[in-house]
Structure formats: C-alpha cells, structure tokens
Amino acid sequence: MGFAYLVGMWEKNQAVELRQLAVQTPGQGHGGFLLSAVRREVLENRQKNQLWLDVFSENTQTRNLYQKNGFVEEGLLRQAYLWKGGFQSTVIMSVLAQEL
Predict the structure, then answer these.
(1) Does domain 2-99 have CATH number 3.90.1150.10?
(2) 80 neighbors 90 (Cβ within 8 angstroms)
(3) Nearest residue to 21 via CA among 40, 9, 36
(4) Out of 4, 33, 76, 78, which residue is the most buried by the measure of CB atoms under 10 Å away?
C-alpha cells in the first residue's frame, strides 16, 4: 500500500518530522488513510507533541490532504529546494497533540 518515513521519534523535543509519505496507487484514498494512521501513531500512541512536514507550495492537492487531517500552515521556506531545474518553495505544516 505505502510507507511513511519519520524523523525524530526518539528525540527529547517531542517533535516528529514526516519526511516522506508515499502510496503505491495515488488517487484512491490510500494517502489519507496512511496519513491518518501515522498521525494517530505519533500523537496518540507514542504521545509526541508535534507532527510536522514540508510540502512544495505548488502542490495544492497534497496541502489540502494535510489540512483535512488537521495540519496547519506554519510558514514558507522560499526557494528552499532545487527541483527539476528550478528552485521550489516549501510550506511548513504541523499538527499538535492538543489539536486532535
């Protein structure tokens, strides 16, 4: 179905980065299901304080998916990545345990 790559699960600051989320067949709801399971595992089961990520600013479909799952836009990293021959900006998004 897919996988999630998390960074910081064992750090003292209680903030976990969702570095990558991928599904085998996009567009069938698997991404939302996996994201919900990751959010639940990190914030409820592992009792971490924050789950955060960054997403390309132009990727509105994925940003909407994150927002539907409780993520809030925190800020913009302008031209943070060199991607496909040009610089891309990313939006930092997070959800806190207290917001569930």
Answers:
(1) no
(2) yes
(3) 36
(4) 4
- The candidate with the shortest Cα–Cα distance to 16, out of 97, 98, 79, is 97
Beta strands at 50-56 and 15-23: parallel, antiparallel or unpaired: parallel
> What confidence score (pLDDT) does residue 75 get?
98
Could you tell me which residues come within 8 angstroms of residue 41 by beta carbon, excluding any fewer than 6 positions away? none
What are the extents of the domains in the chain?
A: 2-99
- Give me the DSSP letters along 46-82: S--SEEEEEEETT-HHHHHHHHHTT-EEEEEEEEEEE
Spatial neighbors of 11 by CB under 8 A, at least 6 apart, are: none
Output the pLDDT for position 86: 97
pTM of the model: 0.93
Question: Within its chain, how far is the Cα of 56 from the centroid?
Answer: 11
